């Protein structure tokens, strides 16, 4: 019997669960019931804003009946999945993490949710998020902050804004989840929870029907246990959608190449020179980073040190991403932020309101720089498949009321959003307090397949044994 056969059901990867369903070792209902039971037994993790148990069981039963009729809707038929609260699903609440929308029930279903169900997957419910997706620590004092499962004693940052999604996958409450990444919001919870978070190139997955933050920067992406699951879920969700113009601008080859994994070519991974890092790392994170470099060398990788062209400042791109995000977010939520009676978390209110003070000329100038940066990055990366750099400057810290302890996280993650790049966070080790530390790979827009090829090799080198938290404190 293989090591995988010994793995607890809730820590099996999604492809293994799908195989068990296909081979009738397990039914979708059995698997779904298992995850729903774990969610019910761990309310202290606060990962879900809404658990759709009745719907999930009905979907699982439907998946089993279809299989009995000889019909499999897709490669993850019958497998449970969780979705971020901002992804609308008719008949469920789409609060966007805000008390201003606590009673808003969706009448529409987002394209991503429609696709999940069309593939025969089972939606367990909606996961918690930072209010209006505006923050990377994952805090939400008005609706509840998910508890980072790596520390049962201290309330540490779960990473945001897809906070509940990261916690759900890390704690074995769902085998995979769909989140959103506008300034690092898939990669941050993945990095701080020791799982994989993938931000596809802009336009790979339709955002139609999702609550917006920034039209320019919003991207949906998976949080999973491994790269192969992230690739497969993205492949199922990817494709053109007339309701999201960004999906119509992406070359078809970017989508079709996801179906054909290949071994990365030798020497096609570069490492961002430390002088170009937009944030400094703590000693613990630096130790994990150096350890990762040694592991790569031992595995036969000799990444070249990559110095960006002078025009391509990662620190400046992080700031520009914040500028564009805030300017566009104000167009959606500025009226709420300016209304003192609106029940917003004051930290988020301040962030949204700041967008109203950005001059249009500065916003337009940032968009011009973005186009130039995307072209410069693609040109400078010719002959290279991926760029390796830190994903977090430190492990998850204790929550702070001002939400300022994780600013370095944003500086490291936001440049990929500004570049419209494909980016993926990979577990790389633990700090001295036992909290996960991650690295990330970036590739120019459209280079998703090559990025994932590299990531699939690197994950086996960086974390040959999957990182898992001790969940005994939650009775799991």
Q: Can you tell me the CATH superfamily? A: Amidase signature (AS) domain
Secondary structure tally: strands: 11
Overall CATH architecture: Alpha-Beta Complex
- CATH classification class: Alpha Beta
Pfam family, one: Amidase
InterPro entries: Amidase (IPR000120), Amidase_CS (IPR020556), Amidase_dom (IPR023631), AS_sf (IPR036928)
Protein name: Amidase
Organism: Achromobacter seleniivolatilans
What does the model show?
This is Amidase. The chain has 476 residues and is of the alpha/beta class. It has a single domain (3-306, 384-474), classed as Amidase signature (AS) domain (Amidase signature (AS) enzymes). Helices cover 39% and strands 12% of the residues. The chain is built from 16 helices and 11 strands. Strands 1-3-2-4-6-5-10-11-9-7-8 form an 11-stranded mixed sheet, with helices on both faces. Strand 10 (422-430) and strand 11 form a beta hairpin. Helix 3 (28-41) runs antiparallel to helix 4 (53-68), helix 6 (163-170) runs parallel beside helix 7 and helix 12 packs across helix 15. The longest helix is centred in the C-terminal third of the chain and has 24 residues, at 314-337. The two termini are 25 Å apart.
